[in-house]
Amino acid sequence: MGRTSDAKERLMAAATELIWEDSYGAVTIDDICKRADVRKGSFYYFFPGKAELAVAAIEDLWVREWQPFIARHLSPELEPAERFRGYLEAIVAQQHRLAEQRGKVLGCPACSVGSEVCNSQLELRDAIREVFAKKRRYYESAIRDAIAANAMPACDPAEMANALFGLINGLTTQARIMNDLAILKHLPDLGLSLLKLKTPATA
Amino acid sequence: MGRTSDAKERLMAAATELIWEDSYGAVTIDDICKRADVRKGSFYYFFPGKAELAVAAIEDLWVREWQPFIARHLSPELEPAERFRGYLEAIVAQQHRLAEQRGKVLGCPACSVGSEVCNSQLELRDAIREVFAKKRRYYESAIRDAIAANAMPACDPAEMANALFGLINGLTTQARIMNDLAILKHLPDLGLSLLKLKTPATA
DNA sequence: TTGAAATTAGACTAAATAGTCAACTATCTA
DNA sequence: TAGATAGTTGACTATTTAGTCTAATTTCAA
Q1: Mean pLDDT computed over A160-165
Q2: What is the average pLDDT across A167-184?
Q3: For residue B189, what is the domain's CATH number?
Q4: Is ipTM beyond 0.90?
Q5: Which of A19, A193, A194, A5 lies closest to A116, judged by CA?
Q6: Using an 8 Å Cβ cutoff, are B142 and B168 in contact?
Q7: Angle, in degrees to the nearest 10, between helices B157-178 and A122-148
Q8: Residue B1's pLDDT is what?
């Protein structure tokens, strides 16, 4: 049935690349089309506009990258301290990888774009809030596990998840703005310390 | 000599308001002129373009607001735990005040705008990096004092300043994106906990 | 009070950008 | 292999935006 195409995927990939590197507002539809090697008409065949493309791109990013990333690295198979350390180290490693590939520290696009558009592009903001909520729920669950295993002191898991999320995003954004990976060096230690996790040695 | 005017100040104030609420990219020169009640010709009489206005605005914000804010609230007159607690509480209170005034949680513009423009508006990025460096130096000094007073364990003050800064900015940005002040509620506790500050009770 | 300096006004140009559309092309199925 | 379906093309329009320019206006100081 009909002509086949991966133009939609190419557009999402191009939008992700460009917006992640620069910003939502600075990237035009023409830029995205050029990078994806797709003509204007095809763009509007697939998406009503830039905002809808961005929503699709971020939802895709969650499903194809971030969800699997969390599942792989915030692994319930490990004991709590190693679980969180592994995850935080994976974040740092991922920023290193991206920085090498792209020539600069990129940070987290959900955070950058979220902060940029939260008062003007409401549907995009909501898509980003969704992703944040999902991430926080993963953290919360891991924190609950750690408390249950007596690996950290009791606390409100939702609040602590939020704090951890804030620390990660804060340092990552710093690293982006300063274009300096060194800012992330101690993220794993700081994260564990924030959670008051007893490392195997401490326990 | 010659005609007098406060149009330059009105332009900076308008730019700060608009960009803080929305974003750098979403605000046009026409928007700023309209809000400031200044005509195009006058805009270009004072500034070569939006980027230069933004640089002037952020430098002004540092000198007139943020510097005095830190000096007032991160006060060396207090003992370490109260010093940091007072500062963190002042940040939370300030976000509450702004949210009430403006109808939404605004976060820190240096952080939002910094993350937005760091790969395209290099002079603005540099102005923001300067502000960050200054803030971090204040934190670092306060941390050094706390260590000297035996109120917290020894650590690399620069690194810890960075972590604190990351936590503050991370939670503040979260609060902006979610438009939810509750996210900031535990910032003071989390900050002290990150620093491992002995509260008077603990000491 | 005059003239130089500082500021204002707003119409104008040029460029960038979003979005439209009708004709065209490829692919699958009956 | 016909024709229905899905996707492509690029020229076109309309709008927004940045930035320019000249003439007018206000202020101060000599």
Answers
A1: 96
A2: 97
A3: 1.10.357.10
A4: yes
A5: A19
A6: no
A7: 130
A8: 76
- C-alpha closest to that of A156 among A168, A169, A140: A140
Tokens of B34: 């309209």
Residue A186 lies in a domain: yes
Show the tokens assigned to B56: 């002037």
- Owning domain of residue B131: 50-195
Q: Please list, residue by residue across A41-76, b when 16 or more beta carbons sit within 10 angstroms of its beta carbon and e when fewer do.
A: ebbeebbeebbebbbbbbeebbeeebeeebeebbee
Q: Which of A112, A118, A173 sits opposite B169 (nearest CB)?
A: A173
Within chain A, strands assigned E span: none
Ranges of residues in chain B whose predicted pLDDT is under 50: 202-203
The CA-atom distances, in angstroms, between A38 and each of A1, A28, A29, A47, B52 are 21, 13, 10, 12, 35
Number of domains chain A is built from: 1
Query: What amino acid occupies position A66?
Result: W
Cβ–Cβ below 8 Å for B25 and A183: no
Of the candidates B114, B100, B104, the residue with the CA atom closest to the CA atom of residue B23: B114
Residue B190 in domain: yes
How is residue A88 written in tokens? 């935080």
Task: With a cut of 80, say whether residue A203 has pLDDT above it.
Answer: no
B194 to A193: CB separation less than 8 angstroms, yes or no? yes
Query: Which residue numbers of B have CB closer than 8 Å to A's CBs?
Result: 21-26, 104, 107, 111-112, 114-120, 125, 128-129, 132, 159, 162-163, 165-171, 173-174, 176-179, 183, 185-186, 190, 193-194, 196
- Cβ proximity of A85 and A92 under 8 Å: no
Nucleotide nearest to A47 (CA to C1'): C19
- Is A189 part of any domain? yes
